[in-house]
Amino acid sequence: MRVKLSWLRQAFFCIAVYCCGLSAQAGTDDLLQRVDLLTANGATQLALRILDSGQPPVEETENWLRAEQARLAIYKKQGDWDALIDRLEHIPAELPLIHQHRIFTHAVEILLRAGRGGQSRRYLRNLIWRGSGDSVQVSHWRRLVIRSYLVEDKLNDAQISMRRYQMEYAPNDQNWSYLFGLTLLKSGAFQQAAARLSSVQNERAVTLRLLSLLRAGVDPNSIVSQAQSLYSKLTSTEEHDAIVMQRLWITQAEAAEAIPDHTLRVKSLEKLFSRPVKPDAELPIALVPVDLWQAYRTLAAEYGNSDNLLVGDSESWLQRAVNVKKKDRYGARSIYALLAMTADAPEQKDEYHGLFYDVLRESDLEYVAVSLYTDPLSFTVIDDIPHSVRHRIVRYAVQKKEIELAARMARNLTTTYAGQNPDEWKLIRARLAIYAGDPESGERLLRELIRPAVRFEPDLANRVMQLLFDLQSVNRHAAAYELLQMMQERVASEQQIREIYFWLGDSLRGMQQYDRAAESYIKSASYAGQGFDMWGQTARYHAAEALTEGGMLEDARKVYEGLLRVTTDPTRAMSLQRKMQDLWLREQETESGKG
Prior knowledge:
595 residues; mainly alpha; disordered N terminus
């Protein structure tokens, strides 16, 4: 019997351990789902806070590692390399070495993709010199060291490291051939690079081989044909590597310049800048939006020469753009771009830039337009961007929920857009400023909007008050209170005046002025002869809470009693009774404290 009991104890122990493991894993699954949801919706700071508070203890190694990888992924998405490096400095010492290796290796690979070669080498050297890695790990780390030199274009160091590696390991795998080919390409040994890369069976290697062949002097038309063939193959599938696509358009743009084929160059650069450019540490993108501006200028000049158009004859150029718009959209866009770039008069310049932006948008290339105008090499400061374009980018950014971009474009932009009401535009600017974390600018704009007004129409008043609620949400209660008082003097609707008393109470309560808050709530409840309608009951309830917070417990009880007499909802009645009971308990505590 004793043997049986021992066996049962062991079984129960194993089941308990297994269930605890399942529970911990389920908890981590829930945590990571929350983090993924927040990250996908742009709330990365909140996601990091949740990770800080909910990450499993390091003793739950696998779950800790899963959460840590999610954290590193957020740093990568933010481009917050300082935070990532700081995190590496505080990896728990009690984490087993095998898992420390996993974390450091993963972080190094992230740093390399971001082009941070020197910082990655610091951790790689530590990993190698520790002597705690197995032969496979050390081999991988040494290859990463070579990559770290390549991303910084330290080609001599990369070649020395490669020769040493080759002597020790005699590698012949495809990953090594890719790395070797990349080194040759960066070193200018284009024919050797193409030969080495020809044995590697992946799209990234194919794009590097095409670029090597082009730079080795192979017919650029042949390169374009091969690039287009690969593009057709890739776009026939649902998923494709964004880096590969970028490299294809870079190669094709370079080939187009060599042919020369100005239309193809414009097409290739438009494709390249039609979506966010991904960092490519292996092959940094030397092309920038300024190159597309220049390509437009060159193609437009080709049209001008063929049609004998005179520089400065804007009407003839504009008519030519209209005429070719349907049959040659690249040529038409180039002419619009040239008109925008060469216009002298400020009004005409603003008009032509707006027209050019619209032509791109009509061709589903609005992101290209945004790339062109937000490029600091094209427009050093935001104020240099034509106002017509800034308004258009604001609309685009709001639609895409890119609030920071919209706020930057709207800041200090006092002109209106296409018949827009000045008050409407000021309201938009205030909203963007508040949402982008600049409530001071939002408050200033709201004062400019409210102060000179004699009366507000109910619809505009409601929209202004919505922004005042937003100020309350970010704890700008003093400013919200001041602006609500100004609004109250400028609305005619009794209901809106009544509502403002309520929101004034909220701001006073936020400033911990509980007596004044309770008075404002009561004014809201009884304004214009109102009594115990639903609004009035809600306002009185808030008044009772403010009185409680201010220590005026007897007054709070009387307000609750008044509400209890008129309520017909059993659930609400129970809630009021609980509130009164809480008041009684607080009074008893106060009395016993005095005794």
